[in-house]
TrEMBL record, chains A, B, C, D:
InterPro entries: Aldolase-II_Adducin_sf, Aldolase_II/adducin_N, Aldolase_II/adducin_N_sf. Residues 6-190 form the Class II aldolase/adducin N-terminal domain. It holds the Pfam family Aldolase_II. GO terms for molecular function: actin filament binding. This is Class II aldolase/adducin N-terminal domain-containing protein. One of its GO terms (cellular component) is cytoskeleton. Belongs to the aldolase class II family.
Length: 230, 230, 230, 230
């Protein structure tokens, strides 16, 4: 358990330093010993999150233990996806700028290099307008969260029109790796499409690259690097 | 009062670190106890401003107490807007590079993501040439400042052609949030228009997102983050 | 010997700080006293590499001395090129983002300024698909590495489609200089082609500039700078 | 005299930190008490330059006092311009990336904001090919330097095709201000031309803005900021 909580705190810091999270966004981890519960920070900027900031919520996003802590309004994203996806053990909602640029333009993100393959075969796009009309764009009701989870389906990333992205993984480290490389791939895709037509990875390359990139050896190597950076 | 002055010093530092202000630009706060007066730094680069640098000016931009301090030439912007807009409690004039790029190109800034909604429904553009012909582009006379304030009208941001922007808020923290996210939205809009036609927020989304983003909870969360960064 | 090992450790750090290597990528140096062997770090992020992380491998990429250290999967690139190119004394495989953008777009990198001339007359491009079909894009078999080395031929850089680049040099310092300026030139080429048709260096200019840039005086000047940066 | 030497050391550091100079480039100051001589660092990366690195050269770029120090090959640029332009008291040759992008593309730099006005009415472009054919692109002979100075004529900046720029000023601080804002304006111009047709400053605006920007008050304000940054 301790290792999950340590990884969750580290992920907050790493994602902040790598430019995936800034003052906003949040990352959570499912409780491996009680899969109907998950851990997430109280409402606090990710760069500042410490172990004592973590709270445990049920899948309806209510604190398991009484608390005065203010909670993220968009925590409903986490509960809805943990309900819909038993394989998912960690979730990050973020506004990484290169990713938001694609969500603003309404252009699909696709893997243009081997590390980008971790986004998976397809990144579906969810538009709050489709079902909910004019909103503040936040996903703050269970209905909105369930709709987002349905669009995510069995993929690893869902783009959120004019807002950001929600990324999922089978562990905190896998989730962190995917969120960082989604952002890096978006930067590359933006540069590449200014030079000519895209030639993204094939379905086979995505499958094979993704498996290699998410191996313990590869994720472990960069995790050591990320967590050593002050 | 102390809290306003503390926030004003912090805003100078935050806006410098976030790349809104560099060696130039300035930020002010209206005196909440005497609304015909405002506080602003003596002429000094924002990153260096300390409490002792603050001076109090009347709405004709004259020091309330005798001082030898050199003052910003463009302080007239502040007096003119505080006169025209009783609701405005804080003002920032800046040359944030992504914002100036739009002012150089003569392209309207529009919200392309939920956080950008804080710029408001419309960002009018002021061109010093229209009334004043060839100038040094600085707003340094009461007439120029009054013209700028008239173009701002009841909006939250006025773009200044080939120069920068002036941003206003109902508090120092709201102003700071708006100035930072105006800059971030400009970066995103620039990237998005290289990929395809824009689909900005609707009027309803701007209204709703802006209200959420400027709530105490949201601004407070990122203010803690910003003021903790060295 | 010590100077080669010191330079190799320094090169890892410099290339990480200059944004050529990040958590991934690797750099090696041939043993000047036994040219059938080379030094490279155990599998570790370049920013963290210390003298004790270096291992010595033969040209079939097997450790010369028994070791428990995990090794880079793509170390086969190094052995294959050292076999094929007796003049090469140092090699770096990297995913520098501006370089990967060109590899994603399938656009040739060419020198657009005098410092970019160090990439040489031509940067051939290798596509793993041509001979090997769908893979994880890593070069991890001797056959793939030999194919890459054949495409490199007698050039100084080989672009790797949707992946990165492999850069070679006649010394660690020359290699480091070339890898950094390949990246800087890619950034400039990307900006320049957004403004108009390219007018790259002539073959004569590439030859003359490259010779000057790779002189001991020029490389020594910037090496002092790079190694002094924390 | 001391103040000139102090400013020259500070300018090396400031221009390095502001991204105008990197490992390469150089900045000099004419001796105000003997206008046939100038000060410049020995061949060293600008970020590292200290008072003890400064040497005094005559206008044929020979050391006034015997020295073993290695000198910049391109110091001939300085002597030639000091000969041709009695009003010039300080010179910087640099490869600031946004400036080199324009020199690679062959596109004229023009002021797109008030601070960019300090580049002056016109930035002529010099191409080493025109008179000297294939070279290593460095300006390393008196003939090349005289040709460059002739193209500079009575302007404040000369663009050097596929290479960089040489900037001049009437003081070290003016020169520093101009070199930094030439770079910032190039970044803005590059972004602006991706959005639509340019509308640069008029000749009158350039004249008036430049005069204001180069006043002691404005330069002094940012000089305090720049020299306070570590």
């Amino acid at each position: 358990m301790d290792s999950v909580l340590d990884d969750l705190v580290a992920s907050n810091r790493v994602l902040a330093r790598e430019g995936v999270l800034d003052g906003f966004g949040h990352v959570s981890a499912r409780n491996p010993h009680d899969t109907k519960r998950y851990f997430i920070s109280r409402s606090r900027s990710p760069a500042l999150v410490e172990r004592a900031d973590l709270v445990e919520l049920d899948l309806d996003d209510r604190p398991v233990r009484p608390t005065d802590a203010k909670l993220y309004a968009e925590r409903v994203i986490h509960g809805a996806i943990y309900k819909a996806r038993p394989d998912v053990m960690s979730i990050c909602h973020n506004h990484a700028p290169p990713v938001v640029a694609f969500c603003a333009a309404g252009i699909d993100m696709v893997p243009v290099c081997h590390l980008g393959a971790v986004m998976g075969q397809r990144v579906p796009s969810w538009d709050s307008r489709d079902e909910f009309g004019d909103t503040d764009l936040l996903v703050s009701t269970p209905e909105q969260a369930a709709s987002l989870a349905a669009t995510l389906a069995d993929n690893w990333v869902v783009a959120m029109r004019r807002h950001g992205a929600t990324v999922v993984g089978r562990s905190v480290r896998e989730l962190t790796f995917r969120a960082v490389h989604l952002k890096l791939n978006a930067e590359l895709q933006l540069q590449a499409i200014q030079m000519g037509p895209l030639s993204p990875l094939t379905a086979g390359e995505i499958e094979l690259s993704s498996r290699t990139n998410l191996s313990d050896a590869v994720v472990g190597r960069i995790w050591e690097y990320w967590t050593s950076q002050g």
